[in-house]
Records
---
Amino acid sequence: MRDHRLDRELAERTFGQTVAYLVASAERPDVAMGPARRVDFGVHSFVLDTINYTDFCLMVAGRYVHHVPHLPEQNTSEPYVLRDTVEAIKAAGFAIDHELWNATESDCSQCHAGCSDSPVGK
């Protein structure tokens, strides 16, 4: 709420999707994943809460999960990353908040892959 001026309801939804993303990332290190822009707000806020984030990582992954931000020169619009991320989150047993994952960039990146549907539409 404080870091991104979100109301309580949206902040709680964002944090829930952040936790789902981080759990799925810890469970599936073999899958290239990345959060949608709106979920990334939650990731950044949580990482900065170092004591709670470290405890969470140790509990969920058994190790500290480092945050590696995308650099401008990297291809962050890989068309399958968000789709694979959403599928991994679902496989981990979490519900997807379509509003937070169905950001414009995820739909647009699918166009480059020749897909006609959003990665969260399934």
---
Amino acid sequence: MGFMENLNVEELAQQLMTVLTTYGLDVVGAIIILIIGNIISKIIPNSLTKMLNKRGVDVTVVNFLGSLTKMTILIITLLLVLAQFGVQTASLIAVLGAAGLAIGLALQGTLSNVAGGVMLLFFRPIRVGDFVEVAGHAGTVKAVNLFTTEMATGDNIQIILPNATVWGSAIKNFSFHDTRRVDFLMGISYNDDINKAMEVLRRLVEADERSLKDPAPVVVVSELGDSSVNITVRVWCKSGDYWGVKFDLTKAFKEEFDKEKISIPYPHVQMVKD
């Protein structure tokens, strides 16, 4: 029994030596290729990103090209590892090409996301930092990657949309133009002086330094409502000042109307006793 055990151990050791002799260098070479490929997949995309940033290339383009470069290097590394073990990469590529149609049909969604990412990169309807509304979601664009677009809402909730959805939807980009128009609708009582109310509104708008002179602000009577005379105020400002102008002037209009004794009608609830 002991002799048989010694024989099995010797046979196992001999087989192990044969494997190491035959494939040892290939395994070591494959490991070295993987290590080098992994290092290169980090160095080259980072270097490319730094170079493009120095040249002022759009951040969206930089991130997309960085992701694409890293993926390409990893694929090349995998092919080199297979070649190290004697796999004919040319034949493998031919087989993959033949199977490409079936894979493409199975991964239609994924490939359409890549195509959507390419279209977003080429036409650039959105850029990193833009505030947009797309597919029913509104937020600031954080990144456009190979497969997805990442956004953050005003309260900093992450939204990740497939690129195909972004490209296939109507995109409302609030940051595309340098200026935006802020609209207000102020209602006054029929007993109040319309001209006085309009003068108060115009004075407050012109006093705000964020209000642009060209296009000029507009203050007009837009509607005779059921219980109020409605005055529309339109103010142009820089896109980044939109919400500040909106909030500050709304507060200023109410406070100044109170000082000038101009009433703002509002619904009254009347209690009826039996």
---
Amino acid sequence: MAQEFTGITQACEAFIRSIQEGRYYDAHEDLEYIWYVRRFEDNDEVRLWKGFINAAVSFELLKRGRPKPSETAWKTYLKYSPFLETLVTPHKEHYVRITQILERQRGELCPSF
């Protein structure tokens, strides 16, 4: 079950656990708590969170048998994922791990892509 987090590290760790356990809706919620209050900031880290959230939404939509909307959400993840390359943050290690997990999960859920 998704919980409310105040720290970025805590939210990222919860997001990773939720994705790995196939609880994609919860994963979305895990990051939504930190993203929502900062969603209007002109900040690449916040944009990256939005991408991660959309990846979780994509997986949840696949789980519910909705491949077309899932593809739209995945494209949003892909739009924001390049921000990781130039991002300077103490949380980068978490973000790299999240990206690796999301890419692996996508390959498992959509082996033809």
